[in-house]
Amino acid sequence: MPDYPWEFADAHCHLDSVAGGFSPTILHITCGYSDKANQRNGKIAEENANAYLCAGIAPQEAMKHPDIKIKLNEWEETIAALPKLVAIGEIGLDYHWAKTEEEKFLQHECFISQLVLAERLGLPVVVHSRDAEAMVLDILGNFNLKCMLHCFSGSAEQAQAAVAGGRAVVSVPPLRNKERRKFIRDLPLEKLLAESDAPYIGKAPSDTLEAIKTIAEIKELDVEAAKRQLLMNTIAFFGVK
Ligand SMILES: [Zn+2]
Question: In this structure, which topology does domain 8-238 adopt according to CATH?
C-alpha cells in the first residue's frame, strides 16, 4: 500500500459545523448541502491538505426554493468552480421532510439536475435518501454514475441490488441497527466506506472509528486492517490523489 499520511478516512462529514473536528491523521471528505455550506467547506478543503470537498444542494434545502431551477443555474456554476471538488453531494430525496407534492417535486428537480451536473463533470455522487430509498435507486438506475449511498438506511436487499450494478458503494455511519449489520455482513468489504456524518450523527470525524469497529467486528477483521482497507476504498472512490 502506498504511504499515505492518514490512519483512516471519514468518507462524509460537515467540517464547517464541527468545532475543532479537524485531525491531521484522518482523511476528511467534507460535504456541503447548500450554496453557502458548499462555499464554507470549499474554503476548508482549500486550506487543509487532509480535506477534500463534496458539494451539492441537499433535498431539505431544495424544497425551500420554489424557484429552484433558476437558483441551480447559479449554484451549480459555483459548485463546478470550487477547489478540491471530488464529488457532487449530498444530493437525493428526503420524504421524511417533504410533506407536500410541491416539496417532493422541488427535491426531484434538484436531484436530477445535479446528477446531470455530475455526469458533465465526470464526478461521483454522494446520495442522501430518507424514506425514499426505492425512488432514489430507481432514478440512479438511469445514470451511469459512481455513487456512494451515504448513511444508507434502506434494506439489505436494496443495498445488495445497488452494489450489484457495479458502481455503488455503501457508507456506514456510527449507528448500529439490525438491517445495517445484515448488509455489512453481505456486501464485499471493497464496497463499504465508513463515515461520521459529524456533527449530525457522530460528534466529530474521529467517531468514524465506531463505524470502522462495527465493520471489523462483523467482517472478523482486526481494526487496523479494516481502517486500511476502508481508507483505500475511500481514496479509490473519490479519486483522491
Ligand atoms: Zn451529511
Answer: TIM Barrel (3.20.20)
